[in-house]
Amino acid sequence: MTQLYAVRMDVALPPDMDPAARGDLLAREKAYSQEWQRSGHWRHIWRCVGEYANLSVFAVESNEELHSILWGLPLFPHMTMTITPLAGHPSDIALAGPGA
Amino acid sequence: MTQLYAVRMDVALPPDMDPAARGDLLAREKAYSQEWQRSGHWRHIWRCVGEYANLSVFAVESNEELHSILWGLPLFPHMTMTITPLAGHPSDIALAGPGA
Amino acid sequence: MTQLYAVRMDVALPPDMDPAARGDLLAREKAYSQEWQRSGHWRHIWRCVGEYANLSVFAVESNEELHSILWGLPLFPHMTMTITPLAGHPSDIALAGPGA
Amino acid sequence: MTQLYAVRMDVALPPDMDPAARGDLLAREKAYSQEWQRSGHWRHIWRCVGEYANLSVFAVESNEELHSILWGLPLFPHMTMTITPLAGHPSDIALAGPGA
Amino acid sequence: MTQLYAVRMDVALPPDMDPAARGDLLAREKAYSQEWQRSGHWRHIWRCVGEYANLSVFAVESNEELHSILWGLPLFPHMTMTITPLAGHPSDIALAGPGA
Amino acid sequence: MTQLYAVRMDVALPPDMDPAARGDLLAREKAYSQEWQRSGHWRHIWRCVGEYANLSVFAVESNEELHSILWGLPLFPHMTMTITPLAGHPSDIALAGPGA
Amino acid sequence: MTQLYAVRMDVALPPDMDPAARGDLLAREKAYSQEWQRSGHWRHIWRCVGEYANLSVFAVESNEELHSILWGLPLFPHMTMTITPLAGHPSDIALAGPGA
Amino acid sequence: MTQLYAVRMDVALPPDMDPAARGDLLAREKAYSQEWQRSGHWRHIWRCVGEYANLSVFAVESNEELHSILWGLPLFPHMTMTITPLAGHPSDIALAGPGA
Amino acid sequence: MTQLYAVRMDVALPPDMDPAARGDLLAREKAYSQEWQRSGHWRHIWRCVGEYANLSVFAVESNEELHSILWGLPLFPHMTMTITPLAGHPSDIALAGPGA
Amino acid sequence: MTQLYAVRMDVALPPDMDPAARGDLLAREKAYSQEWQRSGHWRHIWRCVGEYANLSVFAVESNEELHSILWGLPLFPHMTMTITPLAGHPSDIALAGPGA
Lengths: 100, 100, 100, 100, 100, 100, 100, 100, 100, 100
Fold this sequence. Notes:
Chain A is α+β, with helices and mostly antiparallel strands. The first copy, chain A, has a single domain, classed as Alpha-Beta Plaits, CATH 3.30.70.1060. Helix content of chain A is about 30%, strand content about 35%. Chain A is built from two helices and four strands; from the N terminus they run βαββαβ. Chain A has helices spanning about 20-40, 65-70; strands spanning about 5-10, 40-50, 55-60, 80-90. A four-stranded antiparallel beta sheet of chain A has the order 2-3-1-4. The radius of gyration of chain A is 16 Å and the shape is elongated. The relative contact order of chain A is 0.27. The interface of A and B includes residues 49 and 91 of A. β4 (about 80-90) of chain H pairs antiparallel with β2 of chain I, so a sheet runs across the interface. Chains A, B, C, D, E, F, G, H, I, J: It is an enzyme of class 5 (isomerase). Chains A, B, C, D, E, F, G, H, I, J: It catalyses: (S)-muconolactone = (4,5-dihydro-5-oxofuran-2-yl)-acetate.
């Protein structure tokens, strides 16, 4: 059964990081993210305005699968994560029958 | 131009509220929310698991329009809001060209 | 697939609550909790020493199921919840093969 | 449509930064800031008394434009941002008609 | 000498306030605010989007004068204030000479 | 007398740690943890999803014994600990007699 | 085995409490506290200067016993507790041998 | 020996307090404060601008004396206190000899 | 017009700072502080007991002057500042007429 | 007059500190602590379970004396201090007369 989680990722890279190492790291992060977007597991990714942070929504089979995806992020050692498990909301029109 | 905002709404109703008044209030809240969902402005609404709270995403024309919608919520006097303006993320495959 | 979540529940009852109403509420809470313990969904419940709070571990099918159980708690309107989704830990001997 | 945002920027430069690199960084920051002030997007910039921080007000077309300006700040990797989207206030005399 | 202060005002009115008393209170608040805006002391007032709060900028002679204005607000007993004294910023083009 | 404690351990390793030293450190941590799990003192260890953190439950004779085990963790200098002493909960079916 | 715990208790009584009920409550609290002091379980109780709070040290057999004592406090429903389990400190001269 | 303490007092009176009771309470508070000012124990009292709060400096014989004065404040049940014990500063010119 | 501000300064020097550089820095800080004390602008400076911090009171002409003094502190890059603008308190006997 | 203070000391040593320098530092800390314990000024020192922290109680003549002792700690530059001045508690049986 597919489940949703909101994940906010705050990134803190050392300001004096080697530019080539940084470039390589960010390229791997982007490729990794897009792979999971294409597979349908990483449903949304938005930039938080003015911050080195994103808000994402994941659709996965389980807590285990979510952890596995996040743990594998190339930027994971530089990130602070805030995880919010989500459920359907009773006011969501997508969950209501035709007469709702 | 359409813009996105994440809004987390935490609800705190007085435990001793009159049940009829409470029922009426929640019915009006649901109707109000669904009206804005149908118009396309309230794109997502998820329940935060185990909490009287939701995480929502709004697509509006402006800060003004977002404020107007939130201010009009029947539950607004009982809510604490956390607003995060969103922008496109450079890793989002929906924003990439075909060769990305 | 069964998943685990740690849930800390902090209770704040109004000090001037009617004793009979309070007694009835707590009796219903206890019965509800024990029903879910007997079904195997509420795996652990511990009192946090010196606080009107508990730390619990739930084993459920999904975020939805966890929310449904918590939302139905008779004490829910008086509780503040802290939810932590759990996954297997690579050092857990219960997850290791015989040679680990 | 022009929108307003309050942005507080807290700066934390490493105390042992090379003075020439620091001077160059601050000169580029100043030039960048003044360019956006002259274009009308960076409406106000005030120093928070006694702190290495400023409070600014931006007038931009969209969340996207605000993010793009902030992300480009030479000091961005050393800043912590607090973003507050703003709307017109019903008591603002500038928004009131002549008889208000 | 005129000085600037940023003031954020968060309002918390009791949800069960008498509607007439509330209406009267808000009308007096608005009149009071507009009087100080017209005198030039209350330079800016913006609504914080989605919150019962405003961000304002005051231009006054002294700490004393600012306190006197804020203390007199009809809504003062229902407000939480955050005060930030402001100074000119060295990057502000309004403070630079013509060749800057 | 055996007592229970919940312990949350948040790990912060320097991102630039030498990989071999890091590998050795983590191997020693795992062996140390499993030794105490096998002895029955470290009853549960779960990964907090998406975080470099675990939630554990210890069953020890005393505060002294718990401190001694935690202080000896190879990762201890890199950990932030949150300790919650636990007691039996009156709703726990494992503590109730047969007729409860 | 005797164990020590530091407990800070912050008291918040409703300002409009009936004086007689309040007096009775405080008298029962004092008697209860002194009973546990005389038995040797409540080793220290100090007033935190300028606050309606105390810092206490308990010497008990177990987490269970500590919880039982605290839960029984007449003021418990009006208190916020902060619990710190204590252990011997290697610099404590009371724990050192004669040559230390 | 005289000792100094900084004390910040934040006041929260119920907005619906009876005006006469409130007036009486504030008159007693003022008289009490001025009595301790005249005796030399309450050395400074300043209003925190825009807040129902003051910052005070006390010169007393002991922790006991400070607690006794603060506990006796008519507004004490409505106040949140922040206490900072003070000592002489090595840069203070009042503590330096004539050649410093 | 003279105005008062309370300023708390928390100092965080790197533990491995070169002793000579540190000594020179602290000597310059002391001289700078005493210069402003002698001019009457830095009215009070107290050590916060047990902390590398001070609580000071400044009497200056304006926000601008306060910022200029604080910004010039040799220790400024190592300090975290908390600024509280002050005003006269209605209970202050120094502000009352002879009959008060 | 002797006064009491609770002091919590949280220690943060750099993980990569030279072992010999660290050993020397900790030996000096222990000797310093025991000297003040033997003189009767440092009445209690307890380890906070699972944390590199202690909770101590000091009995000193004044704020000045407490600051002097703490400032002299070899570990002081690596410590975060929380200071709570203490007074006698009206429920303390040690303060009550024989008939209490």
